[in-house]
Amino acid sequence: MEWDEAGNLVKEETYPVHNPRGVNEQSFETNEVTDLDRENPDFDLSFDNEGFAPERKYPYKDLTFREGANKERIAYAKGEEEPFTGVGVSPKRKGSLGWETRFLNGKLHGKKILFYNDGFIAREETYLNGALHGKTIGWHGPNRPSWERQHINGKQTSYKHYYQSGSKWIETSFKDGKPVLKSTWDEDGNLIESETY
What we know:
Layout: E1 2-3, E2 9-11, H1 31-39, E3 57-59, E4 63-67, E5 73-77, E6 86-91, E7 97-104, E8 107-115, E9 121-128, E10 131-132, E11 134-141, E12 144-152, E13 155-162, E14 168-175, E15 178-185, E16 191-196
Parallel strand pairs: 3-6
Antiparallel strand pairs: 1-2, 4-5, 6-7, 7-8, 8-9, 9-10, 9-11, 11-12, 12-13, 13-14, 14-15, 15-16
């Protein structure tokens, strides 16, 4: 994704994975991503939720998890020995979709989405190779964020909380996963408190 100086998205490209089994995982954790993260700590690694991971949908309740080489959880479909690649789906009791989780080679990879009963998105998390990476956001309702967090390789870099009106209420910056600066605004956008840790 590319933005102009005013912050407008000017270019967006997606790169689908056509043959995930046996793919060298290093190709998904490139030095270019690491370098971008260092240059811009608020870098938001977004995924094409429909095209990034293959659309093999599978009931989440039928996935099993085993400990991987680095003690991470690796997902497997029942009766299969290859790590699961696809979308784990979990319906609500009344039949609507409760949430969907994307996996690549058994690890969380791409978006994990939780839905309200009415079908609107309640929460979105973005993962890269099993770790939170990019924007995680909770919603009051359609187009009204409640809060958002940024992560880089599992470490939180920022947190924002919003009033119901949509204006920013609290913003916290993190360094090495620990808070360093917290600012608070009133509903009119006036800074009322700022503290460092």
